[in-house]
Design brief:
Mean pLDDT of chain A: 90
Distance between the termini of chain A: 46 Å
Structural class of chain B: mainly alpha
Order of helices and strands of chain A: HHHHH
Radius of gyration of chain A: 21 Å
Number of domains of chain B: 2
Order of helices and strands of chain B: HHHHHHHHHHHH
Oligomer: heterodimer
Helix content of chain B: over 70%
Largest interface: A-B, 81 and 101 residues
Shape of chain A: flat
Number of helices of chain A: 5
Structural class of chain A: mainly alpha
Chain lengths: 121, 251
């Protein structure tokens, strides 16, 4: 397999990066979107199962957020954990304090995180 | 190439109202916070792509085609670390399973009896966190015939902005002071959290949000590698649904 990929990489030359994006990035993720189109055939907008599916999608996204903060990458890893969580919590609170303003939540969260980054240096 | 979908007469027969006003409304709705947030979160992907010596076109193509920030980070980050290509494809596929519940919950909101399958495939391509979170709260108040053009306007605007940011990040990212680079990486978690809260309407939404968040450290410990998000999402989403059912029965 790896020999085959190596020779394919050499044969395609400058096009190889684009092929990598398509074959190993686009296709493995896009199949799930396409599969979903066939899953929803005959499914009504008001069907009960969608209530459950929506809850699963929401819980999954919450998990994505938690994971990004638990195992941060790059520059975010330099910020101490309690500041990462604190900034997220403050953004969440600000969202409610400023009458459910998405913008306020983001600005407050970001300001605290970036400020902590400068203080920690 | 990028799939740029525009509402066409074959999908919107001339007898109906024009698709362009809702398309433009979608463009405008996306042009503020959503597009800016996505630009911040994808600017780093350009830098990752440059680090491995790939051309800027590959970075931009990844935004148009993969259209999932975390999967793009996995792709270029793993290439930098020398991970074998089939293993990268599996990791990306696992991280993109989350599109199934997103697509399955948002696509029926847009579909009409005469919507062709190719249009559904195009709509599905635009589904990613931003389009899903924003679509779930913006689409329901709209009349059904306006939802597809509105969604396409919205999604094309955020996708185009993100592609520009990916290209800009390819040339810019190395010069940023570390706290600002951390701030860019922080846009995704803070935006997702606040946008999810903005879209939460009923108790079940808050339950799913809170349980998914709180269970993540435990699930990460015990789940097989790469399966933690899926197990946590299905498990906690189901738990939220069960609580919602029990409460409804008691009411």
């Amino acid at each position: 397999m790896s020999d085959f990929l190596t020779s394919l990489s050499e044969a395609t030359g400058g096009l190889w990066p684009y092929l990598v994006v398509i074959l190993f990035g686009f296709l493995p993720s896009e199949i799930w979107r396409w599969a979903s189109v066939f899953l929803v055939k005959g499914l009504d907008e008001d069907s009960e199962i969608l209530v459950w599916v929506r809850a699963v999608a929401t819980a999954l996204l919450a998990g994505v957020v938690a994971k990004l903060l638990m195992t941060p990458s790059g520059a975010l890893a330099v910020i101490p954990a309690y500041w990462r969580w604190g900034a997220l919590g403050a953004g969440f609170l600000a969202f409610f304090l400023f009458r459910r303003s998405v913008m306020a939540g983001i600005v407050v969260g970001e300001t605290i995180l970036i400020g902590a980054g400068f203080l920690a240096r | 190439m990028a799939v740029y979908a525009m509402p066409s007469d074959s999908v919107f027969p001339p007898s109906q109202s024009s698709p362009w006003p809702p398309f433009r409304a979608g463009l405008r709705a996306a042009a503020g916070v959503p597009a800016f947030m996505l630009m911040c979160s994808l600017i780093g992907v350009g830098g990752l792509c440059r680090d491995i010596g790939y051309p800027v076109g590959a970075a931009i193509l990844s935004t148009f085609l993969i259209w999932a920030g975390p999967a793009q980070v996995v792709l270029f980050g793993s290439l930098a670390a020398g991970v074998a290509l089939p293993a990268i494809a599996i990791a990306i596929s696992l991280s993109s399973v989350r599109f199934v519940p997103m697509c399955v919950s948002i696509l029926p909101m847009m579909r009409r009896p005469n919507t062709p399958t190719w249009m559904m495939l195009i709509l599905a391509h635009y589904v990613a966190v931003t389009a899903w979170v924003e679509g779930m709260r913006r689409l329901p108040p709209l009349p059904r015939e306006e939802r597809i053009p509105y969604f396409l306007g919205f999604a094309n605007m955020v996708m185009f902005a993100a592609a520009v940011a990916t290209g800009a990040g390819y040339f810019l990212i190395a010069q940023l002071p570390p706290p600002l680079a951390a701030g860019l990486l922080f846009t995704t978690p803070v935006y997702f959290t606040v946008a999810l809260a903005a879209g939460a309407r009923q108790l079940i939404d808050w339950l799913a949000l809170g349980l998914g968040f709180a269970s993540a450290p435990v699930v990460a410990l015990y789940a097989p590698p790469g399966m933690d998000l899926l197990i946590g999402g299905v498990g906690m989403g189901t738990l939220a649904y069960v609580i919602h059912r029990i409460r409804r029965r008691m009411a």
